[in-house]
Amino acid sequence: MAFIELINVVKNYTKGSEVVHVLQDLNLSLNAGDFLALMGPSGSGKSTLLNLIGGIDKPTAGRVIVGGAELGGMSSSQLAKWRSESIGFVFQFYNLLPFLTAQRNVELPLLLTNLNGSQRKENAMTALRTVSLDDRAKHKPGQLSGGQQQRVAIARAIVADPQILVCDEPTGDLDRQSAQEILALLEILNDRFKKTIIMVTHDPLAAEHAKKVLHLDKGVLVESTEEAVSA
Amino acid sequence: MTGVGFVWKNLYRKKTRTFLTFFCLYIAFLLYVALGSIAVVFSVDTLGGELGANRLQTSAKYSMIDDIPKRYVDEISQLDGVELVTHMSWFGGYYQEPSNMLVTFPVDPSTFFRVYPEYEISDEHLTAFLETRRGMVAPISLVEQYQWKVGDIIPIGSQIYPQEDGNYVWEFELVGSYTPDQDGQTAVLLQYDYFEEATAFGKGAVGWLAIQISDPQLAPELSQQIDSMYINSSDPVRTATESESNRQFLAQYGNITLMMSGILLAVFFTILLVCANTMAQAFRERISELGVLKTIGFNDYRLGLWMLSEAIWLSVIPAVFGVLIGMGVLFALGSSGATAMFVPTPPMSVVLSTAASSLALALALGVIVGAIPALTTTRMSIVDAMHA
Fold first, then answer.
1. Which of B119, B87, B88, B126 is nearest to B105 (CA)?
2. Residues of chain A contacting residue B294, judged by C-beta atoms under 8 Å apart
3. Is B251 in contact with B43 (CB distance < 8 Å)?
4. Which of residues 39-78 of A touch B (CB under 8 A)?
5. Under an 8 A CB cutoff, do B295 and A112 touch?
6. How far, in Å, CA of B151 to CA of B148, rounded?
7. How far is A211 from chain B (nearest CA, A)?
8. The pLDDT of residue B28
9. Which of B12, B289, B300 sits opposite A97 (nearest CB)?
10. What pLDDT shows up at residue B185?
């Protein structure tokens, strides 16, 4: 069985009296350790698909199964717990909390664990070392460059050691050099730490770092560089 | 960092705004404790108490500053139902400086402490007071404040009564101290006989009478009877229960309770808006952050609870400071005797109960202003929050 499986997934939104069909009868299978790039024009449903896999939204119809867990049947609290244990999120605009230092930002997901204060600090520093930012641990986000902030965000995503990283345009707000550093880091996390990565991107150069590339158009997967999909 | 630490850091992320909100709340709660305690004193019988239920007070009918003849003491003592009568006069005393006023009453020592058993004095000091014509006794707090010793000659100035030689500064010998029933009461008691003998005017007159009756049920009937006795005299009187007299005395300032309640209501309505505005701003600013925290795995209830905790801290922390400072101000006023001159100092029990109600009010305020942000936090979807 695939590690991530979407079966006949439909996602609609209601805007006033109008129903917007975002994803239509979508099927997708991914194995553990995959590095998938999701591409497509704006409004094609990439982020919605990412939200469904990340357990922050539920499908209108169909099934989303991740690591053996069927997300559609979980309550809000169960989903929150599942996300804290299984998923790391990386956002386009980093979404660090501005009043916390890098180390405190990275430590945040560990507040949901039973680790004590010193263990949380130690794990946060380890994650910062992984992204080569341990020397910026006491800096607040405003004192870091965009690339550094994104690396802190990646450290926050991996600190609780989730199996899956969900990245929504992680290089969309970065210059080329910083983007390359982030993509190289994601590759390391995929190759060396065996993280399953699903990355939404508009950038074909970024997509080249993934092992698989899928294209979405109007809620339908239209082509892929590998055979992971049937729509 | 812990959850509590996270809430704390959130509270201080906008330091100026938090400080200004704290300051508003601090002032509000300081006022609440200070004015609230005084308003309580104006609204209840804190002077009469349970013991005051069997005491009547008789004073000149038309003005409290008029004297009444001293012979009324004997005449009223003859009435059925009257157990004992004592008298007091307003001396208008001060110590060292006219601005340093002292509540000073010439009294009859043989009856005063029997009519007011809540004023405790040792037999030794009472005997000395009875036997020393120039004697005076003072509350123990006042004796300690001025470091007086038994045997000291204390100069007490009067703003009303000169001695026969025209001197307004009298000298009395401190012969003892007594313990009043309430904190902050600072009445210095003098020997009436000596006062009457030495004063340049006002001989044979007293300020008012305190009448101990055998049964509180007799109070209306006796009051009417006493007033009737002198209704056609040149010195008519007005008699009422002690608590009623106290209320009438305090009512000369106006309806203090209503005024203070009005001020406090306006203050609290304002701070409710201030506090609610602060929390609403804080919530709006961090909607997307709440979305991020939910995405990371913090559940709705934990985040809602954090939001509510922040609102409670926002109101309770300055309230604690306001209450403590307010209590300090009241105790300072009480020990200086400044309030006792015109307004009874709120007793400790009243101050403590006002302080407790202040903190309960702060808690309620926090819950009220935090409820909507907290509920919205729990109900907000991650997708909506991330797009805010």
1. B88
2. 56, 80
3. no
4. 51, 54, 56-57, 76-77
5. no
6. 9
7. 26
8. 87
9. B289
10. 63
Copy the structure tokens of residue A187: 């590759």
Give the separation between CA B284 and CA B296, rounded to whole angstroms: 20
CB A196 within 8 A of CB A34: yes
For residue B231, how many C-alpha atoms fall within 13 Å in the half-sphere facing its CB?
A: 7
Determine contact: B8 vs chain A, CB below 8 A. no
N-to-C CA span, chain A: 18
Both tokens of residue B166? 């025209």
Among A58, A110, A112, A167, most B C-beta atoms within 10 A, so best to mutate, is A112
Q: Which long-range contacts (CB under 8 A, 24 or more apart) does B10-16 make?
A: B10/A99, B10/B282, B10/B286, B10/B306, B10/B310, B11/B310, B11/B313, B11/B314, B12/A99, B13/A98, B13/A99, B14/B282
B322-358 pLDDT tens trace: 999 988 887 777 665 554 444 556 777 777 888 898 8
In order of A90, B47, B184, B230, B325, the CA distances from B331 in angstroms are: 58, 18, 8, 43, 10
B7 in reach of chain A (CB within 8 A): no
Q: CB count, 10 Å around CB of A135?
A: 10
How much is the pLDDT for A230? 39
Please enumerate in sequence order all residues whose Cβ is within 8 A of that of A122, keeping only pairs 6 or more positions apart, or say none: none
Q: What angle do CA B109, B114, B115 make, to 5 degrees?
A: 100
Query: What ipTM was assigned to the predicted interfaces of this complex?
Result: 0.90
Tell me whether residues B296 and A57 touch, CB distance under 8 A: no
CB-nearest to A56 from B2, B12, B382 is B382
Query: Which residue among B6, B289, B295 places its CB closest to the CB of A56?
Result: B295
**In a 10 Å sphere around its CB, with 0-12 CB exposed, 13-18 middle and 19+ buried, how is residue A114 labelled?**
exposed
Min Cα separation B383/chain A (Å): 7
From first CA to last CA, the distance across chain B in angstroms is 27
Chain A residue numbers with beta carbons less than 8 Å from the beta carbon of B303 are none
Say how far apart CA B274 and CA B280 lie, in whole Å. 10
Residues B282-329 pLDDT 10s: 889 889 999 999 999 999 999 999 999 999 999 999 999 999 998 888
Distance CA A47, CA A222 (A): 16
